[in-house]
Automatic annotation (TrEMBL):
<comment type="similarity">
    <text>Belongs to the transaldolase family. Type 2 subfamily.</text>
</comment>
<dbReference type="InterPro" id="IPR004732">
    <property type="entry name" value="Transaldolase_2"/>
</dbReference>
<dbReference type="GO" id="GO:0005975">
    <property type="term" value="P:carbohydrate metabolic process"/>
</dbReference>
<dbReference type="InterPro" id="IPR001585">
    <property type="entry name" value="TAL/FSA"/>
</dbReference>
<dbReference type="GO" id="GO:0004801">
    <property type="term" value="F:transaldolase activity"/>
</dbReference>
<keyword id="KW-0570">Pentose shunt</keyword>
<keyword id="KW-0808">Transferase</keyword>
<keyword id="KW-0963">Cytoplasm</keyword>
<keyword id="KW-0704">Schiff base</keyword>
<protein>
    <submittedName>
        <fullName>Transaldolase</fullName>
    </submittedName>
</protein>
<dbReference type="GO" id="GO:0006098">
    <property type="term" value="P:pentose-phosphate shunt"/>
</dbReference>
<dbReference type="InterPro" id="IPR013785">
    <property type="entry name" value="Aldolase_TIM"/>
</dbReference>
<dbReference type="GO" id="GO:0005737">
    <property type="term" value="C:cytoplasm"/>
</dbReference>
<comment type="pathway">
    <text>Carbohydrate degradation; pentose phosphate pathway.</text>
</comment>
<dbReference type="Pfam" id="PF00923">
    <property type="entry name" value="TAL_FSA"/>
</dbReference>
<comment type="function">
    <text>Transaldolase is important for the balance of metabolites in the pentose-phosphate pathway.</text>
</comment>
<dbReference type="InterPro" id="IPR018225">
    <property type="entry name" value="Transaldolase_AS"/>
</dbReference>
Length: 443
């Protein structure tokens, strides 16, 4: 198990060439084939209930789960580390991706995934690289819809279909899990009222009890979060990069619950998406610029140290008289969600932003790379608060070296918002070009 104390310098302990292959068994493994519309040759193939499983130890990069054959004709999917993560440690594994057909999520649900997150960049990639949206797109364009309306129709259908797949998890956990997140337009990141109206519209449009409306944690949107929560709409607060902003997000959630006037708060829930790997990406560059041995030794440690302190803040804020008063009305904690969990530096362990961040009442949303790595060789143990004093020491040491945490948070927020805006605008441009081609063809 990797903890903060053991990550003296990930860059020195691991290399991209090893990529954890030494941990892999030479015996054939069972792989979930998540690819569609592709011709692939496998050694042995069998299927069971919408789940395609293949044996081929030479294939790398497939989602690996432990499995067994039943009577030689079918397969039984056994427990994975994702099941253990939830049942033993109280952390919910979610999947950070969404595209058509959403039935591609079925094998992931079987393997233990309990929710889905999406963002403008994810939809930009999904819609622009797939033919699965063509039929609906053509119908919408021919019906005279403007391009942004077309975009939302495409997105809402995916979200609704995914919500249906996770509905049973939502019901079984009494609204504790089984959520699918969809983000308001990134163009509204500096628009308080616009964000509130967009959240109301999107919530009504999707019309599913297990949808999370994503709102960025920008300063103008903090009041939006309070307002939307007070209206009884569940929210995934995204793009959180600093402890100060995280505390403001928690307060907005508490303020919203108190302002709601609802006698039963049990159906108003929220997660706070605290980003991790991007923190190391920026801080590592700053440390390399400083260049001292002390600075270089702190590379790869900033993100998890700050995350551990975020969890400490979470425990503090969701306790005491104010919180207990809300609990009496059925309020649920705003769970911490670890986002940006894929490793950006190939020299680092591929579970660096999953293994050390395990703790109860939290969520870890993982894109393909991180999810595959954790299922294959992740460790399940409570680690998020295993050494808080060391996390505090790392955080302070970085400050003493001149790392301004406020700057880090602000810079990453700007980059995050800008990235989503560019993805959103790029997709709308490509959809417009596609619509123009359709119109020319129809003429």
């Amino acid at each position: 198990m990797a903890t903060i104390s053991k990550l003296s310098n990930p860059a020195l302990n691991y290399s991209s060439s090893t990529s954890f292959t030494t941990r892999s068994s030479s015996a054939p493994k069972c792989f979930l084939d998540l690819r569609t519309n592709k011709t692939t040759t496998f050694d042995h193939k069998f299927s069971a209930s919408k789940l395609s499983l293949v044996f081929n130890p030479s294939i790398r990069g497939s989602l690996c789960v432990k499995c067994s054959q039943a009577d030689g004709n079918g397969s039984t999917v056994k427990r994975t580390t994702l099941h253990d993560l939830y049942e033993r440690q109280g952390q919910s594994p979610w999947y950070d991706n969404l595209c058509r057909p959403v039935t591609d999520l079925l094998p992931l649900i079987e393997s233990g995934v309990r929710g889905v997150t999406s963002n403008p960049a994810i939809f930009q990639k999904a819609i622009s690289t797939s033919n699965a949206y063509n039929e609906q797109f053509r119908e919408l364009v021919q019906a005279g819809k403007d391009i942004e309306s077309v975009y939302w129709e495409l997105v809402v259908k995916d979200i609704q279909d995914a919500c249906k797949l996770f509905e049973s998890i939502y019901d079984k956990t009494d609204g504790g899990d089984g959520y699918v997140s969809v983000e308001v337009s990134p163009r509204l990141a500096e628009d308080t009222e616009g964000t509130v109206e967009a959240a109301k519209w999107l919530h009504k449009k999707v019309e599913r009890s297990n949808v999370y409306i994503k709102i960025p944690a920008t300063a103008p949107c903090i009041p939006s979060i309070k307002e939307v929560i007070s209206l009884g709409i569940s929210v995934n607060v995204t793009l959180i990069f600093s402890l100060a902003r995280y505390e403001a997000v928690i307060d907005a959630y508490l303020d919203g619950l108190e302002a709601s006037g609802l006698s039963d708060l049990s159906r108003v829930t929220s997660v706070a998406s605290f980003f991790v790997s991007r923190v190391d990406t920026l801080v590592d560059k700053m440390l390399e610029k400083i260049g001292t041995p002390e600075a270089l030794d702190l590379r790869g440690k900033a993100a998890n140290a700050q995350a551990a302190l975020a969890y400490k803040l979470y425990q503090k804020k969701f306790s005491g008289p104010r919180w207990e008063a809300l609990v009496k009305k059925g309020a649920k904690k705003q769970r911490l969600l670890w986002a940006s969990t894929s490793v950006k530096n190939p020299a680092y362990p591929d579970t660096l932003y999953v293994d050390p961040l395990i703790g109860p009442d939290t969520v870890s949303t993982m894109p393909d790379q991180a999810l595959q790595a954790f299922i294959d060789h992740g460790s399940v143990a409570r680690t998020i608060d295993s050494n808080v004093s060391e996390a505090e020491g790392i955080y302070s040491a970085l400050e003493k070296l001149g790392i301004d945490w406020s700057f880090v948070g602000s810079q990453l927020e700007l980059e995050g918002v800008d990235s989503f805006k560019k993805s959103f605008d790029s997709l709308l441009d490509s959809l417009q070009e596609k619509a123009n081609t359709l119109k020319l063809v129809s003429l």
